[in-house]
Amino acid sequence: MSRPTTPDGRGAVAVIGAGPAGATAAYALAKKNVEVHLYEASPWVGGMSRSLELWGQTVDLGPHRFFSSDPRVNRLWLEVVGRDYQMVDRLTRVFFRNKFYPYPLKAAETLRNLGVVEAARCLASYARERVTRRHSAHQDAFDDWVVSRFGKRLYQHFFKTYTEKLWGIPAGDLDAEFAAQRIKKFSLGEAVRDVLRGGGSQRHATLVDQFAYPRQGTGVVYDRMAAHVASHGGSVHLRTPIDSLVTTGKRVRGVRLASGEVREYDAVISSMPLTLLVGRLADVPDDVREACASLTFRNTVLVYLQIDEEHLFRDNWIYVHSSELRTGRITNFRNWAPSINQGKPHTILALEYWCFDEDEFWRWDDARYVSLAKEEIARTKLVRPDQILDGKAIRLPRCYPVYRRGYREQLKVVEDFLRGYENLEVIGRYGAFKYNNQDHSILMGMLAAENVAGDGARHDLWEINSDYEYQESSAITETGLVEHERKR
């Protein structure tokens, strides 16, 4: 067994997976002069947040805005990006029944678009929920949680279809935790109050209307992290999947590569999908395997279309709630940073589709995906068929951990099992089975690095969730970081 060591004799650390969480962990360790080896099964770093070149322009794997109020995360992001970013004004809308609605929902515009009669029905539906006090009742399902805050009719219009497209299960089978994380305390009542206050409320992350974006695409953050690792005593191994973890009892001693080579490490930080990690450990009890088998991921198919037009629509992305269209979201990369267009006159759109491994849709060929996307974008009337120049499909497995009702109990079984291992940290959207944004994964990577760097840190990463709050808050602006104490 080979054993990488630092010049002073300390063992090195292996980081599995070079997405936001893994790349951050490796970067943070390299800064602490810990030798770190970053392993990535794919040919690229960045995971779901990587950027790529397409038709002479830069695009991301869907819309990946960065926003955080945590000073630790913001300082690190700025440390990597420097001033090579710009602030992007966010415009996102919902496409429903051939009309566009603001997102987050704005009471006045939404009700006006629905028409007098339907608006009255929606308000009456919301009022009934307020009278019955549903949001004081126990709500463990997504549909109950949303209906209690928006009423049944608005739920059916603006939440049910999109949610079921994304997750592939009835909304009643989705855990309310997803709504609590993504919608938080926002409700129709909050939307109305925002109108009365004159708009501009920033109390919920749902309402954030500006974000920082790197001029070379969001993936440049993780490219630079990996480059730092490679230039500061570490190494980055692309196209290098991990076959298994090497253990003695409940102590992780290293990794076994797909080639069969075994490398010993003082610690392993894993951001590979949780279900795969368990499968790469020996002597896993039957109840843990069964619990792990119940945890599923949703796949994404991205179809990029090159459009012979510069100015199609102003949105960064559009949520497609119309049930007659299979796509769930349309990103317009023309409306992010002008630098990623690289002077080209064309617009690149990305249409998102979601499915499970077992779905026949996952096995379509590229031409069929592109044909579907061309047909659907034309049906929205955002693009004419004669404007479409080219198309390309990209498949992304295991993008979204499915918060099926009861998943917490099954995840806890797996969590308790993995907690029993020494020298193992589990992080990231995939690794910890948490629906992270970039900022959340970055934080997990930072804290994991602190845990293994010998600084005495003992962060419980399993307890970190996307609702965490820090005692101070900050915001990235055009001129840098603005920090202030969080109001309690």
Model description:
The protein is α/β, with parallel strands linked by helices and 488 residues long. Helices cover 33% and strands 24% of the residues. The protein contains 15 helices and 21 strands. It has helices spanning 20-31, 71-81, 107-114, 116-132, 142-150, 152-167, 176-182, 188-196, 220-231, 274-279, 286-293, 366-379, 407-419, 428-431, 438-452, and strands at 13-16, 36-39, 51-54, 57-60, 85-89, 92-96, 99-103, 210-214, 235-237, 242-248, 251-257, 262-264, 267-270, 297-307, 317-320, 329-332, 347-355, 388-401, 424-426, 472-477, 480-485. The strands form six sheets. Strands 7-6-15-16-17-14-18 form a seven-stranded mixed sheet, with helices on both faces. It has a five-stranded parallel sheet with strand order 9-2-1-13-19, with helices on one face. Strands 10-11-12 form a three-stranded antiparallel sheet, with no helix packed on it. A hairpin with an 8-residue loop joins β15 (317-320) and β16. α3 (107-114) packs across α4. It is globular and about 70 Å long. Mean pLDDT is 88; it is low at 1-9 and 200-206.
